[in-house]
Amino acid sequence: MTLPTDTWAYQNGLNRLPPSQKLGFSVLMLGLALVSQPLTQMGIGLWMAIWTIGYAKIPMKFYLKLLLGSYTFVLMSSLAFLIDVRAINSGDFDISGTLIGWSTGGIYWSISQSVLDLYLRLILRAVACLSCFFFLMLTVPMVEMVQVLRRWRFPELLLELILLMYRLIWVLQKTVSDLRLGQRARGGYGDFAQSLHSVSLLVRQLLHRTLTDYHQFSLGATARGFDHKFVVLSMRKYVRSPRYEWEALLGFILLLSLELSGIAHG
Protein backbone atom coordinates (compact mmCIF):
# COMPACT_ATOMS: atom_id res chain seq x y z
CA MET A 1 0.00 0.00 0.00
CA THR A 2 1.32 3.43 -0.94
CA LEU A 3 0.14 6.93 -0.24
CA PRO A 4 -1.36 8.70 -3.29
CA THR A 5 0.86 11.70 -2.57
CA ASP A 6 3.94 9.46 -2.73
CA THR A 7 2.83 8.01 -6.04
CA TRP A 8 2.59 11.46 -7.60
CA ALA A 9 5.85 12.56 -5.96
CA TYR A 10 7.63 9.90 -8.04
CA GLN A 11 5.50 10.12 -11.21
CA ASN A 12 4.80 13.85 -11.63
CA GLY A 13 5.80 15.90 -14.65
CA LEU A 14 8.72 17.51 -12.78
CA ASN A 15 10.26 14.29 -11.45
CA ARG A 16 13.42 14.76 -13.54
CA LEU A 17 14.22 18.14 -12.02
CA PRO A 18 16.75 18.24 -9.16
CA PRO A 19 14.90 18.07 -5.82
CA SER A 20 17.06 20.90 -4.45
CA GLN A 21 15.56 23.29 -7.02
CA LYS A 22 11.98 22.30 -6.19
CA LEU A 23 12.64 22.46 -2.47
CA GLY A 24 14.37 25.82 -2.76
CA PHE A 25 11.53 27.19 -4.87
CA SER A 26 8.94 26.01 -2.34
CA VAL A 27 10.82 27.48 0.60
CA LEU A 28 11.30 30.79 -1.22
CA MET A 29 7.60 31.08 -2.04
CA LEU A 30 6.64 29.97 1.46
CA GLY A 31 8.76 32.73 2.97
CA LEU A 32 7.06 35.29 0.75
CA ALA A 33 3.61 33.90 1.63
CA LEU A 34 4.28 34.30 5.34
CA VAL A 35 5.13 38.02 5.16
CA SER A 36 3.12 39.27 2.18
CA GLN A 37 -0.21 41.04 1.93
CA PRO A 38 -3.52 39.33 0.96
CA LEU A 39 -3.35 40.26 -2.74
CA THR A 40 0.15 38.83 -3.06
CA GLN A 41 -0.91 35.71 -1.16
CA MET A 42 -3.73 35.11 -3.62
CA GLY A 43 -1.19 35.45 -6.43
CA ILE A 44 1.09 32.92 -4.71
CA GLY A 45 -1.77 30.43 -4.38
CA LEU A 46 -2.60 30.78 -8.08
CA TRP A 47 1.07 30.61 -9.16
CA MET A 48 1.77 27.46 -7.14
CA ALA A 49 -1.43 25.86 -8.45
CA ILE A 50 -0.19 26.49 -12.01
CA TRP A 51 3.09 24.76 -11.20
CA THR A 52 1.38 21.85 -9.46
CA ILE A 53 -1.41 21.21 -11.97
CA GLY A 54 0.09 22.59 -15.18
CA TYR A 55 3.79 21.73 -14.93
CA ALA A 56 3.79 18.78 -12.51
CA LYS A 57 0.70 17.27 -14.24
CA ILE A 58 -1.11 16.57 -10.97
CA PRO A 59 -4.82 15.86 -11.71
CA MET A 60 -6.96 18.85 -10.82
CA LYS A 61 -9.55 16.67 -9.09
CA PHE A 62 -6.93 15.18 -6.77
CA TYR A 63 -5.37 18.58 -6.09
CA LEU A 64 -8.72 20.20 -5.31
CA LYS A 65 -9.57 17.31 -3.01
CA LEU A 66 -6.41 17.94 -1.01
CA LEU A 67 -7.11 21.67 -0.89
CA LEU A 68 -10.72 21.18 0.19
CA GLY A 69 -9.77 18.90 3.07
CA SER A 70 -7.03 21.22 4.28
CA TYR A 71 -9.06 24.41 3.91
CA THR A 72 -12.00 22.86 5.75
CA PHE A 73 -9.71 22.03 8.65
CA VAL A 74 -8.29 25.57 8.66
CA LEU A 75 -11.74 27.17 8.57
CA MET A 76 -13.13 25.01 11.36
CA SER A 77 -10.08 25.27 13.60
CA SER A 78 -9.95 29.07 13.35
CA LEU A 79 -13.60 29.73 14.20
CA ALA A 80 -12.65 30.28 17.84
CA PHE A 81 -10.51 33.19 16.69
CA LEU A 82 -13.44 34.73 14.79
CA ILE A 83 -16.06 34.76 17.57
CA ASP A 84 -15.60 37.04 20.58
CA VAL A 85 -17.17 36.00 23.89
CA ARG A 86 -17.71 38.52 26.69
CA ALA A 87 -19.75 38.81 29.86
CA ILE A 88 -22.60 41.33 29.51
CA ASN A 89 -22.21 42.63 33.05
CA SER A 90 -18.52 43.39 32.63
CA GLY A 91 -17.46 46.99 33.16
CA ASP A 92 -15.73 47.38 29.77
CA PHE A 93 -18.63 46.00 27.71
CA ASP A 94 -18.72 47.77 24.33
CA ILE A 95 -20.44 46.65 21.12
CA SER A 96 -19.07 49.35 18.80
CA GLY A 97 -17.77 47.88 15.54
CA THR A 98 -19.82 44.71 15.96
CA LEU A 99 -21.18 43.19 12.75
CA ILE A 100 -23.15 40.30 14.26
CA GLY A 101 -24.01 39.83 17.92
CA TRP A 102 -26.31 37.73 20.06
CA SER A 103 -26.65 37.03 23.76
CA THR A 104 -27.31 33.84 25.68
CA GLY A 105 -27.83 34.26 29.40
CA GLY A 106 -25.12 36.58 30.66
CA ILE A 107 -22.79 35.93 27.69
CA TYR A 108 -22.59 38.11 24.57
CA TRP A 109 -21.29 36.47 21.36
CA SER A 110 -20.15 38.77 18.57
CA ILE A 111 -18.17 39.11 15.36
CA SER A 112 -16.52 42.48 14.83
CA GLN A 113 -15.19 44.01 11.62
CA SER A 114 -11.60 44.13 12.86
CA VAL A 115 -11.61 40.49 13.89
CA LEU A 116 -13.25 39.48 10.59
CA ASP A 117 -10.49 41.27 8.67
CA LEU A 118 -7.83 39.44 10.68
CA TYR A 119 -9.66 36.15 10.14
CA LEU A 120 -9.74 36.62 6.37
CA ARG A 121 -6.04 37.52 6.35
CA LEU A 122 -5.31 34.37 8.33
CA ILE A 123 -7.26 32.23 5.86
CA LEU A 124 -5.50 33.76 2.85
CA ARG A 125 -2.10 33.22 4.45
CA ALA A 126 -3.00 29.60 5.15
CA VAL A 127 -4.15 29.13 1.54
CA ALA A 128 -0.88 30.52 0.17
CA CYS A 129 1.28 28.45 2.54
CA LEU A 130 -0.66 25.26 1.85
CA SER A 131 -0.27 25.71 -1.90
CA CYS A 132 3.52 25.89 -1.43
CA PHE A 133 3.46 22.84 0.82
CA PHE A 134 1.34 20.79 -1.62
CA PHE A 135 3.69 21.60 -4.49
CA LEU A 136 6.60 20.29 -2.43
CA MET A 137 4.72 17.24 -1.19
CA LEU A 138 3.51 16.22 -4.68
CA THR A 139 6.80 16.77 -6.54
CA VAL A 140 9.59 15.78 -4.13
CA PRO A 141 9.70 12.28 -2.54
CA MET A 142 10.52 12.19 1.15
CA VAL A 143 13.79 10.31 0.59
CA GLU A 144 15.08 12.99 -1.78
CA MET A 145 13.87 15.76 0.50
CA VAL A 146 15.85 14.32 3.42
CA GLN A 147 18.97 14.06 1.25
CA VAL A 148 18.70 17.72 0.26
CA LEU A 149 18.07 18.89 3.82
CA ARG A 150 21.06 16.89 5.02
CA ARG A 151 23.27 18.58 2.42
CA TRP A 152 21.93 21.92 3.64
CA ARG A 153 23.11 21.05 7.17
CA PHE A 154 19.61 20.69 8.53
CA PRO A 155 19.64 19.54 12.21
CA GLU A 156 19.82 15.75 12.36
CA LEU A 157 17.30 15.59 15.21
CA LEU A 158 14.66 17.35 13.11
CA LEU A 159 15.35 15.05 10.17
CA GLU A 160 14.82 12.07 12.45
CA LEU A 161 11.52 13.49 13.66
CA ILE A 162 10.40 14.16 10.06
CA LEU A 163 11.09 10.57 9.03
CA LEU A 164 9.40 9.16 12.12
CA MET A 165 6.28 11.25 11.51
CA TYR A 166 6.33 10.24 7.85
CA ARG A 167 6.41 6.57 8.81
CA LEU A 168 3.65 7.14 11.35
CA ILE A 169 1.40 8.40 8.56
CA TRP A 170 2.02 5.14 6.69
CA VAL A 171 1.23 3.13 9.81
CA LEU A 172 -1.99 5.05 10.46
CA GLN A 173 -3.18 4.68 6.88
CA LYS A 174 -2.53 0.94 6.76
CA THR A 175 -4.08 0.36 10.17
CA VAL A 176 -7.22 2.34 9.34
CA SER A 177 -7.57 0.57 6.00
CA ASP A 178 -7.26 -2.90 7.59
CA LEU A 179 -9.67 -2.10 10.41
CA ARG A 180 -12.30 -0.58 8.12
CA LEU A 181 -12.07 -3.56 5.76
CA GLY A 182 -12.67 -5.96 8.64
CA GLN A 183 -15.57 -3.91 9.97
CA ARG A 184 -17.24 -3.67 6.56
CA ALA A 185 -16.89 -7.43 6.10
CA ARG A 186 -18.88 -7.87 9.32
CA GLY A 187 -21.52 -5.30 8.36
CA GLY A 188 -20.21 -2.65 10.72
CA TYR A 189 -21.47 0.32 8.68
CA GLY A 190 -25.00 -0.83 7.91
CA ASP A 191 -26.78 2.18 9.38
CA PHE A 192 -26.01 5.39 11.25
CA ALA A 193 -25.96 3.81 14.73
CA GLN A 194 -23.69 0.99 13.59
CA SER A 195 -21.43 3.51 11.86
CA LEU A 196 -20.97 5.50 15.07
CA HIS A 197 -20.24 2.33 17.02
CA SER A 198 -17.78 1.13 14.36
CA VAL A 199 -15.97 4.46 14.32
CA SER A 200 -15.57 4.39 18.11
CA LEU A 201 -14.14 0.87 17.94
CA LEU A 202 -11.86 1.90 15.09
CA VAL A 203 -10.39 4.81 17.06
CA ARG A 204 -9.78 2.61 20.09
CA GLN A 205 -8.14 -0.16 18.07
CA LEU A 206 -6.18 2.38 16.04
CA LEU A 207 -4.41 3.73 19.11
CA HIS A 208 -3.58 0.26 20.41
CA ARG A 209 -2.29 -1.13 17.11
CA THR A 210 -0.32 2.03 16.31
CA LEU A 211 1.49 1.93 19.67
CA THR A 212 2.17 -1.78 19.19
CA ASP A 213 3.59 -1.23 15.71
CA TYR A 214 5.77 1.65 16.87
CA HIS A 215 7.13 -0.48 19.73
CA GLN A 216 8.00 -3.26 17.27
CA PHE A 217 9.67 -0.74 14.98
CA SER A 218 11.77 0.59 17.88
CA LEU A 219 12.87 -2.92 18.84
CA GLY A 220 13.76 -3.72 15.22
CA ALA A 221 15.77 -0.51 14.80
CA THR A 222 17.67 -1.16 18.05
CA ALA A 223 18.42 -4.73 17.00
CA ARG A 224 19.93 -3.46 13.73
CA GLY A 225 22.24 -1.05 15.54
CA PHE A 226 20.32 2.17 14.97
CA ASP A 227 22.57 5.12 15.89
CA HIS A 228 19.91 7.87 15.71
CA LYS A 229 20.64 8.64 12.07
CA PHE A 230 18.42 7.38 9.26
CA VAL A 231 20.37 6.67 6.09
CA VAL A 232 18.39 7.16 2.86
CA LEU A 233 19.53 6.40 -0.67
CA SER A 234 18.31 7.58 -4.07
CA MET A 235 19.86 6.44 -7.38
CA ARG A 236 17.83 8.70 -9.67
CA LYS A 237 19.51 11.06 -12.10
CA TYR A 238 18.28 14.60 -12.58
CA VAL A 239 18.43 17.15 -15.37
CA ARG A 240 18.39 20.88 -14.73
CA SER A 241 15.94 22.96 -16.75
CA PRO A 242 16.97 26.58 -17.41
CA ARG A 243 13.45 27.30 -18.63
CA TYR A 244 11.83 26.28 -15.34
CA GLU A 245 14.51 28.12 -13.37
CA TRP A 246 13.87 31.37 -15.21
CA GLU A 247 10.09 30.98 -15.00
CA ALA A 248 10.25 30.37 -11.25
CA LEU A 249 12.57 33.34 -10.77
CA LEU A 250 10.41 35.58 -12.96
CA GLY A 251 7.27 34.61 -11.07
CA PHE A 252 8.93 35.31 -7.74
CA ILE A 253 10.13 38.72 -8.94
CA LEU A 254 6.65 39.64 -10.19
CA LEU A 255 5.03 38.60 -6.92
CA LEU A 256 7.68 40.45 -4.93
CA SER A 257 7.08 43.55 -7.07
CA LEU A 258 3.34 43.24 -6.41
CA GLU A 259 4.04 43.08 -2.70
CA LEU A 260 6.37 46.06 -2.73
CA SER A 261 3.90 48.12 -4.76
CA GLY A 262 1.15 47.24 -2.31
CA ILE A 263 3.33 48.37 0.60
CA ALA A 264 4.17 51.62 -1.19
CA HIS A 265 0.51 52.44 -1.86
CA GLY A 266 -0.50 51.32 1.63
Automatic annotation (TrEMBL):
Signal peptide: none annotated. The keyword Transmembrane helix applies. It comes from the Bacteria. The chain crosses the membrane at residues 23-50, 62-83, 95-111, 118-140. It comes from Roseofilum halophilum BLCC-M91. This is Cobalt ECF transporter T component CbiQ. It is found in: Cell membrane. The gene is cbiQ. CDD domains: EcfT (cd16914). Coiled coil: none annotated.
